[in-house]
């Protein structure tokens, strides 16, 4: 698989990574299978998807434990990204950016992941009660201690809220400017897909100008761009899509032209090429430092997603995708 670099330290990873969150968090619990998830991680690594993206809050904790079972056998094959800064309670999630907590959380993640070093340690969310410079300073100390190789920051986007156009990531860019004065940012993780392209307006150009890697989260639109979700079928109550404004039956039906357009492009590249692969190839075409991080818990999809790294979209393809209608949500 093509390799891409993250940050000024030129940390190399496969162009398509693996988002491990669906194995333990956010999607229907009844469909989680530990052994199947383990096979998906192994298959991703076999295909060159070296970046494994997890977080201590996924589960919580169980996702890191799962990834750790693979790392115990294949640490040299993987680039490990995990996150800190969010605590999960019974019915709520709170931020904790206190320096002491960050250091304890890192040690706990290292134990769960069964590794001596985390390749990329990301701040999941800034704590409004703690200056972000203090949190970032504690994370920088972890780099100097040899427990972490590089630091990243997760962008605060429009999840569950109304779209805000080109100003969507202003707050994130201000945070980045502040922490960059403390210690270099190697990567920014933010949602980027055909149906959520907001990061192209300001955030991705900001990263490109500074050689900062961009990890494209949810590049398949929470599964919608795969074309495998059926409008009206519904989601289990614990699935985040059950409350997402683009996943009502009405909006899923209204957004089908986007999937149809991706399928038209896929057909030009061969009968085995899928809409999902076109969606991932579009993300990779947005810049040389962009790494797509699709999430899955199935071995089959991990292999299909990895193969998208070899798909090259033509100028005609990109122009056709650009003409697709904007995604609609129940707010529209």
Please supply descriptive tags for the structure shown above.
alpha/beta; two-stranded antiparallel sheet; 332 residues; 8-stranded parallel sheet
Structure report:
With about 325 residues, the chain is of the alpha/beta class. It has eleven helices and twelve strands. The protein has helices at about 35-45, 60-75, 100-115, 130-145, 170-180, 205-210, 250-255, 255-270, 275-285, 300-305, 315-320; strands at about 5, 10-15, 20, 50-55, 80-85, 85-90, 95, 120-125, 150-155, 185-190, 215, 290-295. The strands form three sheets. The protein has an eight-stranded parallel β-sheet with strand order 3-4-5-8-9-10-11-12. Strands 1-2 form a two-stranded antiparallel ribbon. Strands 6-7 form a two-stranded antiparallel ribbon. Strand 10 (about 185-190), helix 6 and strand 11 form a beta-alpha-beta unit. Helix 1 (about 35-45) crosses helix 2 (about 60-75) and helix 3 crosses helix 4 (about 130-145). The termini are far apart. The relative contact order is 0.15. Residues about 160-165 have low confidence and may be disordered.
């Amino acid at each position: 698989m093509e390799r891409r670099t993250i940050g000024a330290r030129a940390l190399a990873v496969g162009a398509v990574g693996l988002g491990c969150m669906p194995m333990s968090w956010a999607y229907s619990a009844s469909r989680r299978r530990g052994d199947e998830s383990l096979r998906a991680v192994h298959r991703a690594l076999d295909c060159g998807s070296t970046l494994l993206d997890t977080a201590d809050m996924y589960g919580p904790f169980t996702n890191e434990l799962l990834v750790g079972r693979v790392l115990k056998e294949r640490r040299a094959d993987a680039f490990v990204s995990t996150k800190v800064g969010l605590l999960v309670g019974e019915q709520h999630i709170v931020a904790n950016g206190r320096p002491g907590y960050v250091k304890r959380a890192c040690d706990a993640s290292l134990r769960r992941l069964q590794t001596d070093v985390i390749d990329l340690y990301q701040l999941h969310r800034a704590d409004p009660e703690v200056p972000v410079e203090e949190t970032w300073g504690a994370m920088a100390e972890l780099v100097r201690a040899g427990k972490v190789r590089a630091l990243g920051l997760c962008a605060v986007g429009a999840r569950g809220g109304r779209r805000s156009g080109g100003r969507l990531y202003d707050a994130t860019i201000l945070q980045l400017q502040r922490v960059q004065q403390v210690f270099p940012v190697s990567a920014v993780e933010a949602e980027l897909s055909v149906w959520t392209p907001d990061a192209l307006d300001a955030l991705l150009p900001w990263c490109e100008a500074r050689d900062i890697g961009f990890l494209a989260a949810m590049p398949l639109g929470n599964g919608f761009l795969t074309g495998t979700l059926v409008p009206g079928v519904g989601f289990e109550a614990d699935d985040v899509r059950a409350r997402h404004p683009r996943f009502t039956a009405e909006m899923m039906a209204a957004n089908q032209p986007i999937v149809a357009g991706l399928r038209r492009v896929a057909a030009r590249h061969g009968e085995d090429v899928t809409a999902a692969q076109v969606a991932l190839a579009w993300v990779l075409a947005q810049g040389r430092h962009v790494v797509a991080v699709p999430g899955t818990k199935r071995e089959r999809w991990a292999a299909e997603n990895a193969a998208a790294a070899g798909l090259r979209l033509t100028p005609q393809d990109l122009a056709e995708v650009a003409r697709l209608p904007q995604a609609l949500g129940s707010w529209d």
